[in-house]
Write a structure and sequence with these properties.
By secondary structure, the chain is α/β, with parallel strands linked by helices. The chain is about 50% helix and about 15% strand.
């Protein structure tokens, strides 16, 4: 239950290390199911088959460091410049 709540509240999830049976893997799946961003550290993707599969899903990104994540979060937090009604 905790993983579902945290995934639903978060803008995205960063997974650094997780085995095939870990709660972090569950939260990664829930993040994608909730339409949230998922960031997987490259070393995890190289080691875990589940992470390789998740990395191919829409909304997932493979990252090297926090510098790869921050620009995405900043862009997500930026308000729309102008809305128009058609």
């Amino acid at each position: 239950m905790r993983n579902a709540v945290m995934s639903g509240m978060a803008v995205g999830t960063v997974v650094i290390e997780a085995s095939a049976t870990s709660g972090a893997k569950m939260q990664a799946r829930l993040a994608l199911d909730h339409g949230k961003r998922l960031f997987l550290v490259r070393s995890l993707v190289m080691q875990e088959e589940w992470a390789q599969r998740y990395a191919e899903r829409p909304g997932a990104s493979v990252v090297e460091s926090v510098e790869d994540i921050l620009p995405v979060l900043v862009a997500m937090a930026r308000p729309a410049e102008q809305l128009t009604l058609a």
